[in-house]
Amino acid sequence: MSTTYTGPLLSVQDLTIEVRGDDGPVRLVDGVTFDVHQDEVFALVGESGSGKSLTVLAIMDLLPPGVRIASGRILFRGRDLAQLPEAEMRRLRGKDLAMVFQDPMSALNPLQRVGRQLAEAVKLHASGLNRKQTADKVHSLLAAVGVPDPQGRAASYPHQWSGGMRQRAMIAMAMAHDPGLLIADEPTTALDVTVQAQVMDVLAEARRRAGSAMILITHDLGLVAEAADRVAVMYSGRVVETAGVHQLFSSPAHPYTAGLLASVLGEGTAGERAFAIPGSPPAAAERPAGCAFQPRCHLGSGRDKCTAARPLLTLLPTPPSSAEGAAQPQGMAHPDGAAHPGGRAAACHFAGESTLQLLKGQPV
Ligand SMILES: Nc1ncnc2c1ncn2[C@@H]1O[C@H](COP(=O)(O)OP(=O)(O)OP(=O)(O)O)[C@@H](O)[C@H]1O
Ligand code: SF4
Ligand SMILES: [Mg+2]
To answer: Of 29, 54, 260, which is best to mutate to test ligand 1, by the most ligand atoms within 8 angstroms of its C-beta?
Structure first.
């Protein structure tokens, strides 16, 4: 790729992913659009089943059998991954694009020593290294993620490692070639609370050292607040809001985002039940024609506009006084063709100021 390329590191544009259903194709991911810029941590959040994992699996070209990209573009350094031949994708995967999964055991071979597996990952994209150089690289990767006694530990099997240590090994493997983009799908969810923070620290340090951008998928909004620069909120296969992390937490533009925040940041007193968004997301095959959130949205209830028309991702103005808005990367492209001036977009007929008015119980 030409060194003059100045666009976003990753640009996912109108990505639609389908699975074959009894009555025809079912859209599991529907028109997802977002950019990830060099060095930034971009979080994907949303309830279970909203399409977060499928979106990143599509980026990695690791969609499960029967699930396919129906349309859209996935530009990585300006090249469309959705159009790359499999051999080209294999060259990128593990080198410039790497992924850490929720369960390291799903990625580690239980019958092979950890050091051997790391050595294979190293050699895959650095075949010129001799045995000693490869071993040295494996040990330094393990040391970099805080594994004590790397030589000794490399000779043991995954089941001899604790969950936290196995996740460190996965991070070491993902970082073997200093990827431009690291994808972490719920990297700490399977771990004890006590080791979650340590593993997040290791992940953050590893990506900083390599200068990688990161897509972080998590249910933990506290983690998002701590670790992310920008966030996309997904609901029922669609992005409903994209914003800088500060903006998202201080003034959510979409009622679903506001509900998610209220459910974790609820002001309930001790003993009071925390706020929960009523109901559950629709199954992909039963997504309503208008706004997919309408059956659960107290603002959309009784509004014809919400049941009749699907709101498209709309660009929202960023207040000029917002320091974070000023620091947002420029030029995010959207399906409507407009540039994204402040890194903020939402899909709600009443997004922006009017949503906030509605949330405060004022008429619009
Ligand atoms: N192999 C598959 N075949 C059919 N449907 C699938 C398949 N994999 C995922 N889905 C469906 O696609 C939708 C999105 O799934 P996905 O795994 O991306 O959700 P998610 O946001 O990652 O959820 P979670 O937070 O639970 O990991 C869900 O409705 C899921 O049931
Ligand atoms: S479009 Fe209507 S139903 Fe959907 S989130 Fe906005 S107000 Fe609620
Ligand atoms: Mg998932």
So the answer is: 54
